[in-house]
Amino acid sequence: MERLIFHIDVNSAFLSWESARRVSQGLPDLREIPSCVGGDPKKRTGIVVAKSIPAKKYGIQTGEPVAMALRKCPNLVIVPSDFELYDKCSRAFKAICASFAPVMESFSIDEVFLDMTGTSLIYPDPVATAHELKDKIHRELGFTVNVGISTNKLLAKMASDFEKPNKVHTLFPEEIPAKMWPLPVSSLLMCGRSSQETLRKLGISTIGDLARCDKQLLAAHLKSHGILLWEYANGIDSSVVEPNPAQAKGIGNSTTMPTDALSIEDMKPVLLKLCESVCARLRKAHMYAGTITVEIKYSNFHSCSHQIALPSPDYSSTVIYETSLSLLQELWNGTPVRLLGVRATRLTDETAPIQLDLFSYQEHTGQTEKNRRLDKTIDAIRRKYGEGAIMRGSLLSHTDTHSSN
User: Fold this and answer.
1) Is 342 exposed, middle or buried (0-12, 13-18, 19+ CB in 10 A)?
2) pTM higher than the cut 0.85
3) Is 111 a catalytic site residue?
4) Does residue 353 have a cis peptide bond before it, meaning omega lies within 30 degrees of 0?
5) Which one of the listed residues 18, 105, 111, 276 is annotated catalytic?
6) Is residue 80 over pLDDT 90?
7) Taking a C-beta distance cutoff of 8 angstroms, is the pair 148, 171 a contact?
8) How far apart are CA 137 and CA 99, in angstroms?
9) Is 315 helix (H, G, I), strand (E, B) or coil?
10) 318: how many CB neighbours lie within 10 A of its CB?
11) How far apart are CA 124 and CA 121, in angstroms?
């Protein structure tokens, strides 16, 4: 039986979700005026996260600083991000999608794949079904989606990226030469800038050029990724729609600081907050970390990182902070730091047995277990009363010091 896959993608999700809320309140539709979702233009982290079609006409691009966008369009309406709203809209969107298919894969906050294989008796016309799904989302939730239809995930996703917004497109294998091959290679999934530049030097500018190219030539210049791109250019993809997300390979967090950090003391409270965030997520997932990585980005945008394996897997905030601080002290070269990041990898389930050496057994079962109970108590208090309900003394003193300046 030939597979039938839908890919559903919310059109400019964050802006659409904010617009739908405002329209329901009788306010102007952000999708019809120059607008964007972004941060505070006074902060260096303020960037354009999503933009309206009228804003795009001013040359405003996703990812550029809000301050730059305002220079292009002084009347640009900027709204802050609201992740609580996005989560609510995402859940409602996915609930409608799931009601149409036996198997759904959440691909991102605003994208899903539906495996519609074997549903022909219920939905004899896939295109009509896609329109029904699209219109139901618009009618009940107030925002639009694109739907791509094909026989595999790759082609369905490529189809949903055709003309927007509020469209249904097909890209079946027999349609590849007419609909996909004339497109530039930049339109192909997984073909990044580096690959595009390599392909350009080989005289390959369209997906069709890539599809007709010798695989061995691509492998010589792009290794296994070249073979993958050739397969994608020819519409080859055997990946299945996964109803359950794959287990995370790592959990991390990073932050760009409002001002460059000039000393370890400046970085300590930031590092501690990052470690607490990562460890809380580890505990929520019931996972231990086996390796910790600390990343630094300097004021000149040069990045570097160090990692170390923990003596035994853990998710204690104290253990991971002390490990991260040691890594930071080894890593830092003394120049101003713009960004800090902490990542936990080599994850194992907390119920898995842990092998300890004879000399660390007593310490591990004593002080470490005490730290874990404390961390879980702190997690419970924060879940009930909010993140600011309980704070480590080192963070509190740091906040007081800065507020008095």
Assistant:
1) buried
2) no
3) yes
4) no
5) 111
6) no
7) yes
8) 12
9) coil
10) 20
11) 6
Structure token digits, residue 161:
């990226």
Q: Rounded mean pLDDT of 33-59?
A: 82
pLDDT of residue 182: 98
Q: What integer best gives the mean pLDDT of the chain?
A: 86
Q: How does residue 368 score in pLDDT terms, banded at 50, 70 and 90?
A: low
Reported for 230-235, long-range contacts at CB under 8 A and 24+ positions apart, including other chains, are 232/154, 232/188, 232/189, 232/190, 232/191, 233/180, 233/181, 233/185, 233/188, 233/207, 233/208, 234/176, 235/152, 235/154, 235/155, 235/171, 235/173, 235/176, 235/180
pLDDT at 376 over 70: no
| Residues 360, 308 contacting (CB under 8 angstroms) | no
User: What's the one-letter identity of residue 178?
Assistant: A
pLDDT tens for 233-277 read: 999 999 999 887 666 678 999 998 888 899 999 999 999 999 999
Tokens read off for 250: 């790592």
Which residue carries 């949903």 as its tokens?
Answer: 160
Q: Where are the beta strands (DSSP E) in 181-280?
A: 250-261
Strands (E) located in 120-234: 145-150, 168-170
